[in-house]
What does this fold into?
Amino acid sequence: MILRRLLLAALVTSALAFGNVSSVNAQLEQPDDLVTIFYTGDVQGAIASCGCPKLDLGGMTRRAAFLDTLRVSGWDFLTVDAGGIVPFAPMDARKWLKAEHLAKAMARVDLDAVALGYWDLAHGQEYAEKLTGWLDQPILATNYTLPSDKIQLEKTRQFEVKGKTVGMVAFLDPILLTEEHEWIGIEPWNKQEDLIKALSEEVDVLVALANVADSSRMVHLAEIYPELDLIIGSHRGDLPSNVFTAGNTRMVGGGHEGKYLGRADFSFDEEGAVADMRNRYLEVLKRWGRRPWIDEVVTDFNRSVRDLLTSPEGD
It folds into this structure.
């Protein structure tokens, strides 16, 4: 047991120290006064690492290993994804396989909340049912409904983290929708005022996952709902990774095709209100390790791609 703890300590210290884009010193023991949320968005089917020659980043199995190591070490945190699961490109058989296996891998990482982006929903009801089935959890969706009893949606969700209550909502930007989305029951953002106000009175931290057209739309959402402490945005990986603010609302993009893992740390004042939030981007590195339950999905993906390429109908 002692050896295992020492090994875990070495793994976490290495991952945090070397994986931090901002080079902020980190330690194994989670600070008692912080609420931590790890987040992704716009992963776009990137189940494996990028294979980049200079710095090979990303991969679901690495993220799973990192988060699992923290959990075993006693960390209490949330993990969320802001949408953008399906690759943003003309779809072919291989890209469909990437989206399928990414969703299946995400289901094994114990995500606390998952939102869908407009492109995830642009391929019809039948595909959305498959996608949410692979994710194997309710989808956070505050301002839209879907006409399917096979898809479970939740408008809000609450979590207890280190004595604090975190509320979570998810918004889909109406201006992104096209005729491909006519099957979706979308509502304007401002129709949720009573819901957001009531939720804000029940929680210590209020976070929105938002699939938006651009950063100006994140600002607009913050202006409608100043109760939001943090907006994690997604849209084709185009949103800025640096934190920007509107009033007391912090905003950040969650892109980069899974090459980075976002980390938001909330601190609180003496009265229990949010005092500050620090954001970091952790490089998803090979040294983070692997987990066999994700490797199984990656192996199945590679096998499926080989079968596709060797079949007479392969692309």
